[in-house]
Amino acid sequence: xxxxxxxxxxxxxxxxxxxxxxxxxxxxxxxxxxxxxxxxxxxxxxxxxxxxxxxxxxxxxxxxxxxxxxxxxxxxxxxxxxxxxxxxxxxxxxxxxxxxxxxxxxxxxxxxxxxxxxxxxxxxxxxxxxxxxxxxxxxxxxxxxxxxxxxxxxxxxxxxxxxxxxxxxxxxxxxxxxxxxxxxxxxxxxx
Length: 191
What we know:
Elements: H1 2-17, H2 22-42, H3 49-67, H4 74-94, H5 100-105, H6 110-114, H7 116-145, H8 151-180
């Protein structure tokens, strides 16, 4: 359930971009992010870097479209969102707070969180999400600048990159547990 809530704003954004104006899609995604943050607070959980950062990304792009340039193509808007998420993920690594750690800390015990492999696992999983965002950016750039490239090719790249990151997020902690006999440090839990 948690991974669904984490990805819900992005899924809603992607689906709405197919049928509504970009500003509506961005606003809805930002509102869903805020709802997920409110749900976390209501459950006594921490406010997440990814949630707050996503609200900022969706809102900033929406405000840009509203006040400066409403003519951006849907591919350019998706590129801007992917770039924002890429920077958010990369900055979380550079500032030594991989965004996945907050999710992991809520599902593991204190003993597991102190293991050296726990921190390493969170960095690797965050790198996987950073790489997925980079691939999505590349897919959007290709659609923007390669004539005759169908729109669905960029969407296919985004789908494959995101699903690969989800798979890695679920697989890697179990792999570490099997290989090293340590409890899993699942960064983005599926419950």
